[in-house]
Write a structure and sequence with these properties.
Enolase-like, domain 1, about 15% strand, TIM Barrel, single chain, three-stranded antiparallel sheet, 16 helices, binds magnesium ion
Length: about 425
């Protein structure tokens, strides 16, 4: 079975209408997927995507098409052995890499394609991606990673040792995963565009639904932030964890001052306090405040994760399934985070990101970091109905998917309806 065609789609959801997804830096997002299907001459296809918030989704689609050409002719059987080198050939395309390297639109495109390859490989194997990964040997896992520019922090040999230590506990953790799932927190109660009464009502609802942590957006005026954080803390009580997300808005000194004002409300973490590229800025903030500093959803690649994790600037590691080059590069980050003892609490605020990233967390739990205090996965509660196999959350916990693949496949009807600009949802606007 060979890949015969790379088919793309620009799929956008008009979420800016009701402000779901809004934050201090992005007031009007239209959650979008630059979607790709790897068709084969057999009966399987691999689906993947990267996430954007509207304009620019077309640029990602064009980059996926440009980069995806090299996958035509790839034998699906070879994915079992060669997915490391194939992923590297996408991120290191000798000419297209100039557009990054390994960052921005071209890297988002690589992420979409590599995720689609994993969907195809897992479908061919008849297992979900988390299970496929969790059953690989340490040597096979390490062979998936591009080690270039990482070995000053972690060598492949050290990574094998780290993974070997987790092998004896794999079966027991998998049993617990299947029985109990992994904890989730929700962001859907506290988008910045929501008025106070909506935030309070939604926070009460999600606590009643079993969530043990909520996150709200901050980064408005100091008075607004204090009022919202106080309101939410009073609504959820002292026993539910509360995280806040500033979405990059503050200067470094300002972040320190603003976080100190909010710390009295017992925060689980403060997320993206400043520029996602500012490693030294994050370190200064982390050194100055008590509350843990979280970041990673905009961290461009494994080399930046290395610096963040090694320096202590990233105290909660927020991988994103689509920002970096898919599963392979996320494995590098999981290994680095395990080495430095930083809990991985993935970012999933976007269309389909929950569906994808749950697999990486489950793999991390079973085969990499194992039991780790503070591990929790974001849940943004909208647009799941567009997927064939939406996430299954019960009592505030992600349940392990059982279907083969990456749970990345969208309904054909959703793609047709929300296709930009000619689908019926958009053509009438
Ligand atoms: Mg965030």
């Amino acid at each position: 079975m060979k890949i015969t065609r790379v088919v793309t789609a620009d799929v956008r959801f008009p979420t800016s209408v009701d402000l779901a997804g809004s934050d201090a830096m992005h007031p009007d997002p239209d959650y979008s997927a630059a979607y790709v299907t790897l068709e084969t001459d057999g009966d399987l296809a691999g689906d993947g995507f990267t996430f954007t918030i509207g304009r620019g989704n077309d640029l990602c689609v064009a980059a996926i098409a440009a980069l995806g050409r090299q996958l035509v002719g790839v034998d699906v059987r070879d994915l079992e052995r060669d997915l490391g080198p194939i992923a590297r050939s996408l991120t290191n395309d000798t000419q297209l890499r100039w557009l990054g390297p390994e960052k921005g639109v071209i890297h988002l495109a690589a992420g979409a394609l590599i995720n689609a390859l994993w969907d195809l490989r897992a479908k061919a194997a008849g297992v979900p991606v988390w299970k496929l990964l969790a059953d690989l040997s340490p040597v096979e896992i390490v062979a998936l990673v591009d080690w270039r520019h990482l070995t000053d922090a972690l060598t492949p040999e050290e990574a094998v040792e780290l993974l070997e230590r987790a092998v004896p506990g794999r079966a027991e953790r998998e049993r617990r995963l299947l029985a109990e799932g992994l904890p989730a927190y929700t962001t859907s109660a506290g988008w910045i565009g929501y008025p106070d009464d909506v935030v309070a009502a939604r926070c009460a609802d999600v606590v009643a639904a079993g969530y043990r942590q909520v996150k709200i957006k901050v980064g408005a005026s100091a008075e607004d932030d204090l009022r919202r954080v106080r309101l939410v803390r009073e609504t959820i009580g002292p026993d539910i964890r509360l995280a806040v997300d500033a979405n990059q808005t503050w200067e470094v000194a300002e972040a320190i001052e603003r976080i100190r004002q909010l710390e009295r409300y017992d925060l689980a973490w403060v997320e993206e306090p400043t520029s996602p590229d500012d490693i030294l800025g994050h370190l200064a903030i982390a050194d100055a405040v008590e509350v843990p500093i979280a970041t990673g959803e905009h961290c461009q690649n494994r080399v930046m994760f290395k610096q963040f994790l090694r320096s202590g600037a990233m105290e909660i590691c927020q991988i994103d399934a689509c920002r970096v080059a898919g599963v392979n590069e996320n494995i590098a980050t999981l290994l680095l985070a395990a080495k430095y003892g930083v809990p991985v609490c993935p970012h999933a605020g976007g269309v389909g990101l929950c569906e994808l990233v749950q697999h990486l967390s489950m793999f991390d739990f079973v085969a990499v970091a194992g039991d780790q205090p503070g591990r929790i996965i974001e849940m943004a509660d909208h647009l799941h109905e567009h997927f064939l196999h939406p996430v299954d959350i019960r009592d505030g916990r992600y349940r392990a998917p059982a279907v083969p693949g990456f749970t990345s496949t969208m309904h054909a009807g959703s793609i047709a309806a929300f296709r930009f600009p000619d689908g019926p949802v958009w053509s009438g606007r």
